[in-house]
Amino acid sequence: MSAYIVGFVVPLVFTLIFRNTKNGKKRGLPVDVGGEPGYAIRNHRFTSPVESAWEGISTLADLFELSCKQYKDKRLLGTRNLISRENEVAEDGRSFEKLHLGDYEWLTFGKAFEAVCNFSSGLAQLGHEREERVAIFADTREEWFIALQGCFRRNVTVVTIYASLGEEALCHSLNETEVTTVICGRKELKKLVDISGQLDTVKRVICMDDEIPSNVALVEGSTSWTVTSFSDVEKLGQANPVDADLPLPADVAVIMYTSGSTGLPKGVMMTHGNVLATISAVMTIVPRIGTRDVYLAYLPLAHILELVAENVMVAAGCAIGYGSPLTLTDTSNKIKRGAKGDATALGPTLMAAVPAILDRVRDGVLKKVNAKGGLSKKLFDFAYARRLSAMNGSWFGAWGLERLLWNFLVFRKVRVVLGGRVRFLLSGGAPLSGDTQRFINICLGAPIGQGYGLTETCAGGTFSEADDTSVGRVGAPLPCSFIKLIDWPEGGYLTSNSPMPRGEIIIGGPNVTVGYFKNEEKTNEEYKVDERGMRWFYTGDIGQFHADGCLQIIDRKKDIVKLQHGEYVSLGKVEAALIVSPYVDNIMLHADPFHSYCVALVAASQSTLEDWAKSQGIVFIDFSDLCQKEETMKEVHASLIKAGKKARLEKFEIPAKIKLLAEAWTPESGLVTAALKIKREVIRKTFSEELSKLYTSR
């Protein structure tokens, strides 16, 4: 109890002594730029966009070689060895694979460079020509990064493909880019075998695992494919070295296929200069990054966030330890009970994360705290409240002795979840809720740098600085970018708005990519070059600038929403698929970026639903009463699921919960236009309470 008293008195004294003082620090400054009229902001430390942070370094291949020479004997790439793979049977009879993983085994910068050179030479020996493209189709791992850098040394463009991509999108990506060599893992190779007859140009497959699936032999016999293990390619290159054929800054390094907001995914073409500009900019933002840092890599390398992050670590001389979302912590799904998760085994100091991961960490901690109860829970709640008050109040309370006190008494136990040493987190890919951001700030004792960027801008855009403790914003422009707001009169967003300028966000700078592969029309629609030669990307997002030059995302021009796990939902596409249900008169899908599922408001078809109810012997007072009955909602929901599956919608696109509305949507009610198109914003406001209940109800 003495600790409880000390924990109350000490912070109180310090709060009286150290008052909150806001220094009004400018993080972004207005700048005069060309192009369309608007309100533009630059980074407060750089007057013009940064292209490279290193003299004489202009490509990713140059940067990797420089770091490997500079940090030759230091650890670079780490992978855990597999001790055992077991099946655990749950009480309900279901079987789950559990892994027992050992310690990390490391390649130094010098050895990693050798592996890259060997793979590069082996690729040439296999017959892959410079003008041909390679696709990497695998989960994040050591071989992924080695393959990437190996391709760069041959000036081979890499097509990145999510390991979770469906068959149709996978075929589209490989065929559109005319890939001749695919580098993949064992489980991805099985997918390739299943669609081998639909692939037009593939000649070679390199499997990252030595154990190659048995059904591959059938494909090799019926196609012109050759299948080789990754290790054999390295051995081939080691025995037959080939001189490097290094790229130029304007050469396309990567064609990155997005997850696809509507229809098939688009391939974004990124030059070496584009990606290098973002890497150079991020190097200036992460505090004190250097050789003592250890980075836990587990996000998809096929996503620009992770690809940039790992190259930043290489540039700074950090160690990169590979893991996965399913083995991240000691309690992760695939970790054997009693064995260590990746974070515990590695002890990272730096991590990138998506909001869904941070939400899981938060929920896991709260679950343990609530389970303990008693004095332990009271102390945690009090400490959390004091730290939250301090972060919103005095600078000293947020970063001084009070912070050290609570970390020692309470929060150091929480830090163990992610290895106990994390000092900085980068969050991106989707909006991070203010509650989760504060929770991680407090319990892990580490700042979160929340950023905003797109595949089309190589993740470069804005980034919040380590000393910015605000929530709900995405920071000031990175040194590689200018951020401009332009008027969108149709939505009422104008740079003349008060108290903050608002408008569509466009991003300009050397990090803005070349455009979409084989899609000139879309490229010309979303990319513009101004009279000064600067390339701008029109994001379609709506933002507003705060007085200190930091950006806040407030809306989206198109009806496309990114869910919590990063999946895009096209509201109109889904509505068009679901309205075929006989029970639906009209429907509005609603997606919230802070949740992993959609909900829907359904204007029910009265005649059809009443006929169904009578056939089922359901007694109801009136149509409104019928719409509120549980069995009615189950029937309509089942019908929507059936329609969604028939239209081949993804699970996350089909609403998880619905609200049945008895009143029809008519032009007279103001909910639809004269052409009977739904007025989305009007419906949202009218039924805001119902939508809120759908997300809060169990």
From TrEMBL:
**A Pfam family the protein falls into:** AMP-binding
Give Gene Ontology CC terms.
Answer: endoplasmic reticulum; membrane
Task: Tell me the GO molecular function terms.
Answer: ATP binding; long-chain fatty acid-CoA ligase activity
Q: Which reaction does it catalyse?
A: a long-chain fatty acid + ATP + CoA = a long-chain fatty acyl-CoA + AMP + diphosphate
Where would I find the AMP-dependent synthetase/ligase domain in this sequence? 100-517
Q: Which UniProt keywords apply?
A: ATP-binding, Ligase, Nucleotide-binding
**Keyword Nucleotide-binding listed:** yes
Keyword hit for ATP-binding = yes
The entry's family comment says: Belongs to the ATP-dependent AMP-binding enzyme family.
Name of the protein this chain belongs to? AMP-dependent synthetase/ligase domain-containing protein
- Species in which this protein is naturally found: Liquidambar formosana
- Could you read off the lineage of the organism from its UniProt record? Eukaryota, Viridiplantae, Streptophyta, Embryophyta, Tracheophyta
